[in-house]
């Protein structure tokens, strides 16, 4: 595998952040100081213009890009490249005043007001026209600037619009999807139920006051439409950028596993995936290592959308944020640990929100590299500068790839469908949380894990875990069968294969589409347990696992039973099974088991697949990037105590030392070990 370099201009891992010089145009002293401090902090990029529209265009048609050009010039002269945003994340007041249809309508049918961000209507033609004008202006002004590195389209897309225009586009989109045949839609939505049949697409309203609607088809398709509509809006910006600056790569900044938009669909339009990571570090509900583990999962989700190239950590907080329930300071060392985690999982950048704290308004207390104090000797500045120096030592890592042999299946349609179904317990379905728990259990073995959808190719994997794969994407069952038949180790859980993409149940036994034959079991009933209820699975090897929340009652056809329920009316019946297909195996875990029991099963799968597992101390993560025959193994100590990892050999990239057997990690410490692939045992 060869390196995939995102930015040849930058020699190493990019270090940068959101920079808002437009807030300081009356302070040339501060603007000059910014450049000096950026160099001191080893910054190689700055993200400009995310919310600059009212400065670019204070009155309709009156443009001012001089200050932007001037800033980009000064950055470039000092070796700092620009990630340039299009400013559509927030609109100037004149626009909302004159064209209120640019503002979004909520699910009560009420139009938004000026003074909020991220609330534009995705369909409004006038909005697209005004965005096109400012984006074209930007390209005229700086599109050929040598410092322009990449386009950052808008900011954190999200939300829905229920205006009449969006409602009409929803109807048209459904018409297209169902071949303009309303009876096809009625069948797909099982619409004779409660008299929900339509006779024309024009009768279909969006799900106003979402949640109270009984037509599951309507609410699911509305979510899919919202993704379509947002992507279509994003494409309207991208079309201009691609046409006029085809050489400049394009991204948009995602949020953590964002519920409302299927990022997999949006990513097809982008050159690079980037996201904003703000974990709730040091919270009082979970261990620090678990918070880090969830963040690792999020990185893996982002990376896996473009599996063969690095992604970007577009935003992260230096010090603290200002919007969490409790805005706790990151403890010393955590800054470097979090940045290194992003790189370990495949990011070629560590970027921040924000470079300098503003004096006023909503985010004046949000962490920044430069505080109100304004000096380079603060704890946060020093930690950022040291991160920058460290990233310079990692130039060899640039463009390397995480090549996982293990995958977890996760996708948005499945998440929406599980949430929408009326059944189980509304409180404990926890689909994303279940995927995160499984990711963390697997990660304890030091293996790399992709997070992909059931219709992504599984060719590169040897172990696939399918948690709660309730909805089967087209071709998914076939792909899982082919995976096992070529020797893959597959593990699926309760709630597998109940519905198709229209949420219609498969007849003839779950899991449907022939998966019952693959696993050798049929799930006949599913029991939802109250939060304090427990059962147990007794395994044939003498171990046991605790069951909570869900337990399916299985009918075993031709699978080997590995574990049985301990109590209740289904005591003694199968809870965990396996069916062999040559060297491939299909495991079925019918209950929600504790992490220990799941971990033992995962170890069995990894060993059968010949994937080397590591013994890691509690709280230590291990991730690998590779290319051109070299491997870089990252060790991250996600705890506030020193740790020793055994079985580590190679050269440490950070201090140049040879590690022979034992690696010492300081509290929150990190190490990167370089080794030739053939040295690996
Ligand atoms: C991000 C957003 C930034 C800033 C930041 C604060 O979600 O893109 O503009 O608001 O949060 O944490």
Explain this structure.
- The protein is of the alpha/beta class and 681 residues long.
- Helix content is 30%, strand content 22%.
- It has 17 helices and 25 strands.
- Helix 15 links the parallel strand 12 (463-466) and strand 13.
- It starts with 13 loop residues before the first strand and ends in a 5-residue tail after the last strand.
- Beta-D-galactopyranose binds at residues 155-156, 276, 278, 315, 321, 353, 363, 366.
- The site of beta-D-galactopyranose has 9 residues, from loops.
For the record, give the distance between the C-alpha atoms at the N and C termini, rounded to a whole number. 19 Å
* Unreliable parts: none
The whole-number mean of residue pLDDT values reads 96
CATH superfamily of one domain: Class I glutamine amidotransferase (GATase) domain
User: Under the CATH scheme, which architecture of one domain would be assigned?
Assistant: 3-Layer(aba) Sandwich
Bound molecules: beta-D-galactopyranose
Oligomeric grouping of the chains = single chain
Count of helices? 17
Fill in the CATH topology of one domain.
Answer: Rossmann fold
Sheet/helix structural class: alpha/beta
Shape: globular
Helix content: 25-40%
Described by strand count, sense and barrel closure, the largest sheet is: 11 strands, mixed
For the record, the CATH class of one domain is Alpha Beta
Q: How many strand units?
A: 25
Indicate the radius of gyration in whole angstroms. 26 Å
Strand content: 15-25%
């Amino acid at each position: 595998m060869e390196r995939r370099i995102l930015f040849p201009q930058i020699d190493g891992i990019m270090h940068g952040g959101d920079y808002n010089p437009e807030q300081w145009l009356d302070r040339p002293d501060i603007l000059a100081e910014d450049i000096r401090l950026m160099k001191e902090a080893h910054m190689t990029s700055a993200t400009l213009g995310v919310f600059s529209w009212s400065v670019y265009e204070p009155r309709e048609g009156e443009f001012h890009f001089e200050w932007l050009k001037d800033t980009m010039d000064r950055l470039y002269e000092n070796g700092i490249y620009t990630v340039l945003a299009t400013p559509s994340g927030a609109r100037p007041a004149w626009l909302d005043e004159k064209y209120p249809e640019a503002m979004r309508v909520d699910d009560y049918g009420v139009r938004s007001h000026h003074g909020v961000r991220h609330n534009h209507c995705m369909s409004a033609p006038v909005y697209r026209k005004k965005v096109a004008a400012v984006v074209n202006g930007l390209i005229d002004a700086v599109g050929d600037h040598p410092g322009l590195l990449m386009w950052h389209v808008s900011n954190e897309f999200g939300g829905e619009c229920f205006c009449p225009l969006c409602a009409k586009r929803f109807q048209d989109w459904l018409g297209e999807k169902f071949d303009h045949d309303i009876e096809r839609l009625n069948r797909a939505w099982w619409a004779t139920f409660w008299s929900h049949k339509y006779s024309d697409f024009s009768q279909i309203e969006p799900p106003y006051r979402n949640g109270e609607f009984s037509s599951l088809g309507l609410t699911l398709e509305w979510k899919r439409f919202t993704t379509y509509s947002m992507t279509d809006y994003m494409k309207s910006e991208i079309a201009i950028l691609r046409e006029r600056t085809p050489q400049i790569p394009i991204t948009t900044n995602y949020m953590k596993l964002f519920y409302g938009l299927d990022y997999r669909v949006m990513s097809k339009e982008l050159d690079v995936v980037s996201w904003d990571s703000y974990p709730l570090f040091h919270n009082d509900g979970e261990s620090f290592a678990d918070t880090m583990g969830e963040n690792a999962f999020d990185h893996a989700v982002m990376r896996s959308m473009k599996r063969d190239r690095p992604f970007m950590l577009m935003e992260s907080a230096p010090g603290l944020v200002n919007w969490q329930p409790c805005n706790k300071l990151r403890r010393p060392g955590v800054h470097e640990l979090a940045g290194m985690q992003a790189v370990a999982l495949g990011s070629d950048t560590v970027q921040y929100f924000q470079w300098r704290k503003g004096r006023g308004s909503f985010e004046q207390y949000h962490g920044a590299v430069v505080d109100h104090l304004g000096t380079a000797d603060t704890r946060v500045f020093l930690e950022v500068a040291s991160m920058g120096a460290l990233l310079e030592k990692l130039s060899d890592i640039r463009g390397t790839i995480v090549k996982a042999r293990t995958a977890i299946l996760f996708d948005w349609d499945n998440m929406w469908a599980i949430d929408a179904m009326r059944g189980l317990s509304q409180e404990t379905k926890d689909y994303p949380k279940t995927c995160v728990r499984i990711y963390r259990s697997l990660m304890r073995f030091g293996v790399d894990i992709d997070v992909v959808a059931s219709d992504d190719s599984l060719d590169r994997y040897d172990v696939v875990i399918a948690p709660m794969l309730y909805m089967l994407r087209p071709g998914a069952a076939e792909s899982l069968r082919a995976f096992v038949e070529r020797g893959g180790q597959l593990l699926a859980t309760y709630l597998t294969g109940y519905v198709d993409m229209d949420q219609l149940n498969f007849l003839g036994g779950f899991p449907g589409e022939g998966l019952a034959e693959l696993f050798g079991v049929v799930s006949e009933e599913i029991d939802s347990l109250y939060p304090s209820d427990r059962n147990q699975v007794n395994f044939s090897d003498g171990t046991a696992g605790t069951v909570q929340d869900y337990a399916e009652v299985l009918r075993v056809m031709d699978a080997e039973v590995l574990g049985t329920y301990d109590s209740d009316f289904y005591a003694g019946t199968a809870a965990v099974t396996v069916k062999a297909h040559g060297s491939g195996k299909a495991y079925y875990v019918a209950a929600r088991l504790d992490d220990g029991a799941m971990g033992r099963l995962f170890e069995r799968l990894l060993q059968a697949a010949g994937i080397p597992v590591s013994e890691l101390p509690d709280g230590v993560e291990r991730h690998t990037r590779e290319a051109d025959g070299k491997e870089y193994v990252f060790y991250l100590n996600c705890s506030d105590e020193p740790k020793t990892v055994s079985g580590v050999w190679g050269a440490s990239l950070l201090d140049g030392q040879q590690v022979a057997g034992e690696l010492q990690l300081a509290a929150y410490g990190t190490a990167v070990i370089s080794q030739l692939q053939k040295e690996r045992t």
